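As promised in the previous annual report, we have extended the structural survey to additional targets. Below is the entry for Gfo/Idh/MocA family protein.
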Amino acid sequence: MEAQLRTGLVGAGPWARAVHAPRLADHPGIRLTSVHTRRAEAGRELASPYCAEAYDDFDQFLSTVDAVAFAVPPEVQGELALRAVNAGKHVILEKPIAGSLEQAKRLADAVEGAGVASLVVLTRRFAAETQEWLAGIARAGTWTGGSAKWFSGALLGGDYSNSAWRHSGGALADIGPHMFDLLDATLGEISEVLAAKHESTTDLWHVMFGHATGAVSTASLSMRMPVRPTLWQISVFGEHGYRELATNNSTGADCYTALLDDFLAMIHSGTSSHPCDVHRGLHLQRLLHEVRHRAE
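The corresponding structure token record, generated without further manual editing, is:
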């Protein structure tokens, strides 16, 4: 077995504690060595069960790792990930990858220049059932259109209801990248935002996309609807009929482990290209920017 990849984690919020830290620590090809947080106490609390070291100083933290996983708000990630990449570190990025389109462009350019591996945590793309569904859609041929929806009450209560950046960005920032990515992967690259509307009371977004293939799709998203459990679905239709993906057999933790497998494979093979790499993150950031502009 090759030496384990020394990996650090930035952030100590609910998602970092529930998924990033335990899955990084459990993966046979990875050693969770270091944690960096804004609050020293939170870092020590997260690091201790995994025999990792907590660091207040980000540069000192970087000196101890070969790769960094981020679980912090987009604008913080955009700044710190740029420093990590410029230090030659491979990166696992949450979505959106940055706080603005300009920041995302700088990060993508830096990754390209450094030649490091990058993956964006587009969780559902790494689910076995999603990959099987996408393969079947591709084998069938061309589709005319599709739709996606995600309704939950995640911002009304629960583990993530106190997340300031999620309240600020809403469903568009948190859920939009996941669903837009799936529509794009299913129907071909999204080339145009045809329409967008935002209803602020329930944070309900309605978006219509044009795809380079000529297909048209729609997405409806909200994280402030009294719906439990979360309702999500993606479908396509056309001359081959109608097909829907609404299963959720793989947990977020399962998907993250599959992502780590791909991440290690990229590093060991010396490749920086992947369907969910930083360039995918930049494409999705551009869509978020255009949707917001269209809804104004």
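The longest strand covers residues 190-199. The CA atoms of residues 154 and 223 lie 5 Å apart. These points will be discussed at the next consortium meeting with the crystallography subgroup.
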